Structures are given as C-alpha cells and as structure tokens.
Amino acid sequence: MDGNVAPGTERLRVNQVISEKTVQTVVRGIVTVPDPKPDVEKVLSVDKSVRVRSVQILPDKVIVEGTLILQIVYVAFKPAQSVHHMHGSINFTTFVDVPGALPGMDVNVDVTVEDVKVTRRTGRPEEFDVAAVLEVTAKVTEVMDIDAVLQCPPGCICETQQITVDNVVGAGRRQVVISEEFDVPDEKPAVEKILDTDVKVEVTETTVLKNKVIFDGIATVTVIYVGMLPDQPVHSLHRTFRFSDFVEVPGAMEGMGVKFDLRVEDAHVDVVKTPECIRLLVDIILKVTASVVEPRQVEIIEEIRDCPNVMPTFSLLKIDSLVGQEQAQVILRDVFEPPGPKPDVEKILETKVDKVTVSEKRIIAEKVIVSGFVDIQVVYVALEPDQSVHAVHRRLPFRTFVEVMGARTGDEVEVRANVEFITATVGKDGRVTVELILKVTARVTRTVQKNVLTAVTPVVVPPPVPCPPGETFEYIVQPGETLFTIGRKFGVSLNQMKAANPQLPDPDRIRPGMVVNVPCVPKG
Question: How is domain 461-519 classified at the CATH fold level?
Fold first, then answer.
C-alpha cells in the first residue's frame, strides 16, 4: 500500500475510460489491375482488411487515417477465362466524436470492414469501383490514481461489490527500427522503380520479464514497382519476415499481463544494386507502447447509509474489467501434391509458419467464435536428378471456439493465435501431409461503471448557540436526512420546518449539502 494512502484505503492505478464511441463511414475508390494482369470479366471473391496508419487525438475528437487492403480473385476477360489474383489498396481518413478526449490521452482504435462491394467499371475492364462500409470504434483512456475506501466506517451500513481491475504497474514507449534485405522472386522481373509500399505488422507473442517486455512479431511488406523490362509493366511482390525486440517498463515482473500497441510510423524500400544482383532493402520505424498490468480483485463500497456522523465522497470508476481468459487447441491437417509446374517431392527439408491471421472473432453466449488461416511454407528436395530445392506455400483455414464463462455479446475480446507444433511428411504416393497444433487464446473484457467510495469526512457538529424562540438557524443537510428527521432532531414538527423553508422547490426532496432553516423552540 502507498505510504500516502489513509488506513483502510487502497490506491488503484487504472486505465480510466474517458469515453468510447463508434461510427460508420463509407470508403470509396478505384482499384486498377496491374499491367501484366489481364482485364476483369467477373469478380469471384474479395478478402479485405484494414491497417490503421495514424491516430490523432484532438479535443473531443479522434482522427483516424488508414488503408483498406483488398485481395481480389477474378475471372479474366479472355477466351480461356482463367482465374487471376490481384492486390489493391485505398487510403481513407475519418473521425470519431469522443466527448472528453484531450491530446495526450491514450486511445485504442478498432476498424472492422462490415461490407465491401467490388464491381467492374462500365467500359473500363481494367478498373474496379470499390465501396466499403467501415465500423470505427475509438476508446479514449487515461491512467488515473483512485484511492478506494475498502473499510466500512464504524456504525454505517455499506453496500459492497467485488470487481477485478487491471492495476497499471507501469508503461514504456520507444521507437524500434527493423530492417530486412531480400531478393526479388525468380518468377518476377527485376525492379526498375518503386511505386508504392504497404506494410502490415502484428505482435505474435509477448513475454514480461523484470522491468522489461519482450515482443515477437511479423511484418508483411507489399511492394508495387515498375519492372526492368522494355515495356516496363507494373508488378507487385510480398515479403513476410519475423522480428523481435523489447520495451523497458519499470516495475514489470514475470507473470504480469501486458497491453500492447504497435504502429508503423514510417516504411521505406530501397533498391540495392550490386554487380551480382538487385535486391530490396526495407526499413520500418515502429512506435511501440507496452502497458504492464496486474489483475487485482477488490471489494469496493458503492453505497453507504445510516451514517449521520460522516460525509462520504464517491468517485466514478469506469474501466475495462476482465470477464475471463481461456485457451483452446486446434489440430489442422492438409494433404496435397506440389502444384504444377513444381516437381515431385523427394525429401522435406523444412516446414515453417509464415503467419497466422485471425480474420473473424465474435462472442455468443459464453463462447468466442474464431476464424482465420495459417500460411505455411514447405521447403523440399525435388525428385529429380539434380535434386534442386523448391518451396510450396499453403494456406490452412481454421474455425474454432473458446469457452469463456460469463462472456456475452457486446463484450470486447482480444484473440491471439500461434502455432505450437508443425510437421510435414511425404508419402509413397508423393503427396505431402502437413499437421500442426494451433493454440488460440481469447481474453474477454467488459466496460464497467461504478461509484466508488473514495473518502469519508467526519461531520463536525458545532457547539450550541443561543437561539431565541421565533427565529431560525441554518443547518447543512447530511446524507439520508429529510425535513422530518431534521425537525425531529431539534424538536420541531414537519409543518414548522416547511413553513420556515419556503425557498425549497420541493420540501419532500432535499439533498446532502443543502442549507435549510430550523425554527428555534423554547427550551425546557
């Protein structure tokens, strides 16, 4: 307990929710098919996601800048009607009115794509019209100290309730620079000029140590570039890589929880030309914030009565209270043959996870439904005389649920999924079998709002003063008192009290702190 806190009182350092609002916004734009891709006959499917690029807090407002990212599968406008895939993105800016928000406060922004329509433009088969409906939620919080009175004052009756709070131990912030150098895939032309770069990062695992938080993550870089070819067609390529770093958080200890926020502040891709080859170098600047918390159960006092000798003070506590955190394991299995023109498999060298993506999460009664996919890579020796090495990429979808007692629709949920084990084998028929174990963790919280007793002030009764009959004296109303109980205390009837207080709008409804007149009565 803090040495400056009164006995019977406990200091709670919490992320007080200032306000939370949700708005819907419509994003419109045009996506163009890159030059080497054929024009569009019909859209088959659209995978969509959103990356928040920057968030700015103004008085009573949160500005959000982001990018809508689309992965479009379509039938080509050709006689063979082959199926093709392309990437597109549309930048947007929107805002959320959040009363009470001020610069310097913390904000958590969540953007969900509720609906997206992608249609081929009339007369322009190389272009798509895009219209997406986004749901943007902004929750503004501020770290506050609240001194909660946990012992009921003697002689009083207290109503209590036990709640779980995430007591904030400390927070750390820093900028992190991650770099990766990589080759252009063999099937792609060399890079002449970079046109656009998109970067998506996510934290896959965090570990709290003494005064420090270690974090692991995945960065996915998409590069749009002009190919080094006579007709200079536009191409795109993807690169996914892992990174690890740390944030210092004084007071952090092993076993504590952590809330993590990771944002891309800047990303730049350079073309590195050497006599041997042309490579790409990506530098990403991340803004990292880690808040270490320790769950604590406290029995707060939310009502006090029959206490004439003290004046209670209540403060509003509005926090995210933990409902529950549970885990589930999923076993995924995939059997496949190398796609043409890949050669058959002689021996598997390596099987690794590129990334795990949670595409959907929702709560029904005491269950969190989770959907997503795992992208893997299998590196193998080809069943050929030269025994060349090849790689096959596969995507394994999953859908599962995690039971969290007490969870209900409307609660907030954080989901984290990571692969604990993966293996691949090749059978006599040349088919590859991949098996993996996926651990899914769901943490459900609910915003609770409580009046918490934070101080009790003794009521000092002044010494009696001469009170001539026929006159009145002023009296400060205490909690739980009425004109009737005040009059009874001084030997005055209710009608006399009402007659002495014509200024009261409603004599039957008075509040603590009001001043009323009490008639003087003869003694003896």
Answer: Membrane-bound Lytic Murein Transglycosylase D; Chain A (3.10.350)
